[in-house]
Write a structure and sequence with these properties.
It is built from 9 helices and 11 strands. The chain is of the alpha+beta class. The protein has one domain.
């Protein structure tokens, strides 16, 4: 699978949805809704699907990524999920030493569910808003959201409820305008641009930390073990508490 290259100069273009898109978005959002329904019934409300499934610019390569916004005991997520799904894999991932570590469950229906293992800061909350974030209620109501993709293009579905297509344009046309449209700070948008530009230049998409854990072990136990081995994790946690 090739990496998506950054688009630096793209005036707004209109992309219409067709029947193939309808089938694909219904499939992907259907899987997301199946998982979100179980979490909703378990009282997990600060959760949603982010990325192309929230924005609408899906392709056959699109992932269904669900994220819990606030730290919770992992059993509150895992127990309801196990009532319906099986886990293919569990892992702890940290993108860079300064980014928040996450616990991720990979489900047998092609959906991942992640949870922060330490309290997020404003920047990390804004990341999901910047990418496009849709809750259980949003999916039920057919809502879509503005967001930027890995090519650093702004995706603007129109209308936002059951759209017929979306506008696509480079964020570099006006970072300030894009930040206002997304409701995020210019600083977080600039940071996202720097990270993706660095990856684009270096040709690397690796992460700082990736640890696959035993499905029978909970994230908190293994994260405590990791903190004993990796001082950078302890320092990051100390800053957040």
């Amino acid at each position: 699978m090739g990496r998506e290259k950054i688009i630096y100069n793209l005036d707004p273009i209109w992309v219409s949805f067709d029947e193939e898109w309808n089938q694909l978005i219904n499939e992907l959002r259907g899987r997301a809704l199946e998982v979100l329904t179980f979490l909703h019934k378990a009282g997990i409300n600060s959760v949603g699907v982010f990325g192309s499934v929230a924005r609408g610019d899906v392709t056959r390569r699109s992932d269904v990524d669900i994220h819990v916004l606030h730290p919770l005991p992992s059993y509150q997520i895992e127990v309801p999920l196990l009532e319906r799904f099986s886990f293919i894999k569990k892992e702890i991932v940290q993108a860079t030493p300064n980014h928040i570590p996450k616990g991720i469950w990979y489900l047998d229906i092609g959906v991942s569910v992640s949870i922060p293992l330490i309290p997020p800061n404003r920047r990390e909350y804004e990341f999901y808003k910047m990418a496009g974030f849709a809750t259980y209620k949003d999916i039920k109501e057919g809502r879509f959201f503005l967001g930027i993709d890995k090519q650093l293009t702004l995706i603007e579905p129109e209308p936002l409820v059951k759209p017929s297509g979306y506008w696509k344009s480079s964020v570099f046309l006006s970072l300030h305008l894009v930040s206002k449209k997304l409701g995020v700070t210019v600083q977080i948008l600039e940071e996202r641009c720097r990270v993706l530009q660095y990856r684009d230049k270096k040709g690397r998409t690796g992460v700082f930390l990736r640890e696959i854990i035993d499905p029978r072990q909970n994230f908190e136990q293994y994260f405590s073990f990791l903190m004993k081995r990796k001082p950078v994790l302890r320092r990051l946690l100390e800053k957040r508490l």
